[in-house]
């Protein structure tokens, strides 16, 4: 086989590394690398999947039943709901709809690792605004980064991978600074895990009529434990969601994922009980890490962040050797998902020895 294939690939795509997934874990190890839900699906969800066997037919391309259920749930019309094969699909659709060559998309960095690639795929230019103190969004700097070339701004709250939320007051002040025709994507993939009362909640307090430029993204992957089925949703103005529907790959939301999501909405109380357990486990884990000497940013998702900096790959290898597969971001830090209860003690044992070896004054350590 020759090294070069005889077709021309867009240079920015040829230069783009493929999406890197959190590492898989062997049978003995805990997989804490992809912010998944450690609980197995509810029996009712398994039953819904068993029932949905007509796979010789295409699914309903509009996922009308799920849109209807979510519309009722959030007091909007079905046109103000859009379903995607994971919320990452909707992110991509919105970027393709809003931005192209010469346009810019602003987001905080470090944040969700899919953002830069999706912006480049749209042909647009990523504008990354460094996180501020506490690994939180610096919304003033983000507003200042908006120019007449900006076509979208993404706010990730809680921020993956660092953990803190944007507050409602901060978000409101941010919106007030932005042009009203600028698309604002509020990525709330981990919203259900949030316990901070001042956090922005795009679906509780946001009026589509008041802020028609804001689209809220949520997912069934995390709190509802359906990551493997690929189903997420957006709530926003019909015109923006129609544009996302136009750029979507048709028919990518399967009947099985729609059915499982509908069943999960019906079993929401039971699922949110699990979410409370995970959030409490997260708080315990974060508190114990702080006691060990780690400087842990406010953890509001189903994960914690260790700012291991230059020691990241070495520390990740130590977690792996100890049976915990974590998510390293070379040179920056390690994200550890809150998984099974039995994983907590293991993580803490390894973390204790890693923090001890960090030099005095290291960013991952709390000031003495
Ligand atoms: C911030 C954020 N947004 C969106 C997603 C995408 O989730 P999904 O496509 O599974 O709905 C993720 C997944 O890790 C995420 O962390």
UniProtKB/TrEMBL annotation:
Highest taxon above the source species: Bacteria
Q: Which reaction does it catalyse?
A: an aromatic L-alpha-amino acid + 2-oxoglutarate = an aromatic oxo-acid + L-glutamate
**Organism expressing this protein natively:** Microbacterium horticulturae
Family the UniProt entry places it in:
Belongs to the class-II pyridoxal-phosphate-dependent aminotransferase family.
Q: Which gene encodes it?
A: pat
Q: What is this protein called?
A: Aromatic amino acid aminotransferase
Please provide, alphabetically and separated by semicolons, the GO molecular function terms listed in this UniProt record: histidinol-phosphate transaminase activity
What assembly does the database describe for this protein? Homodimer.
Which Gene3D superfamilies would you find in this protein's record? Aspartate Aminotransferase, domain 1, Type I PLP-dependent aspartate aminotransferase-like (Major domain)
Q: Which InterPro entries match?
A: Aminotrans_II_pyridoxalP_BS, Aminotransferase_I/II_large, ArAT, HisP_aminotrans, HistidinolP_aminotransfase, PyrdxlP-dep_Trfase, PyrdxlP-dep_Trfase_major, PyrdxlP-dep_Trfase_small
Query: What cofactors are annotated for this protein?
Result: pyridoxal 5'-phosphate
Under the heading HAMAP family, the entry gives:
HisC_aminotrans_2, Phe_aminotrans_2
């Amino acid at each position: 086989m020759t090294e070069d294939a005889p077709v021309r690939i867009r240079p920015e795509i040829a230069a783009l590394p493929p999406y890197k997934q959190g590492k898989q874990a062997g049978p003995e190890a805990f997989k804490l690398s992809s912010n998944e839900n450690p609980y197995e699906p509810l029996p009712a969800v398994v039953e819904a999947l068993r029932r949905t066997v007509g796979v010789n037919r295409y699914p309903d391309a509009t996922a009308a039943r799920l849109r209807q259920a979510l519309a009722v749930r959030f007091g909007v019309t079905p046109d103000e709901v859009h379903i995607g094969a994971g919320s990452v699909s909707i992110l991509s659709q919105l970027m393709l709809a809003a931005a192209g060559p010469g346009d810019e998309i602003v987001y905080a960095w470090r944040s969700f690792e899919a953002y830069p690639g999706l912006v480049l795929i749209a042909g647009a230019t990523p504008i990354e605004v460094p996180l501020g103190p506490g690994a939180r969004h610096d919304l003033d700097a983000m507003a200042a980064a908006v120019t007449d070339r900006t076509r979208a701004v993404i706010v990730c709250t809680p921020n993956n991978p660092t953990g803190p939320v944007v507050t409602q007051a901060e978000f409101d002040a941010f919106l007030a600074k932005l042009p009203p025709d600028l698309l604002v994507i509020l990525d709330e993939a981990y919203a259900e895990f949030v316990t901070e009362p001042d956090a922005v909640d795009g679906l509780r307090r946001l009026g589509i009529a008041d802020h028609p430029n804001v689209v809220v993204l949520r997912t069934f992957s995390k709190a509802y434990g359906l990551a493997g089925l690929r189903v997420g949703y957006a709530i926003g103005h019909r015109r923006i969601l129609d544009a996302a529907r136009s750029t979507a790959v048709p028919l990518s939301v399967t009947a099985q994922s729609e059915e499982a999501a509908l069943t999960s909405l019906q079993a929401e109380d039971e699922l949110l009980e699990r979410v409370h357990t995970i959030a409490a486990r997260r708080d315990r884990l974060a508190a114990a890490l702080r006691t060990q000497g780690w400087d842990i940013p406010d953890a509001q998702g189903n994960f914690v962040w260790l700012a291991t900096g230059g020691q990241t790959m070495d520390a990740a290898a130590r977690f792996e050797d100890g049976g915990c597969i974590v998510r390293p971001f070379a040179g920056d830090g390690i994200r550890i998902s809150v998984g099974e209860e039995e994983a907590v003690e293991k993580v803490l044992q390894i973390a204790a020895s890693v923090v001890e070896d960090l030099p005095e004054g290291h960013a991952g350590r709390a000031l003495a």
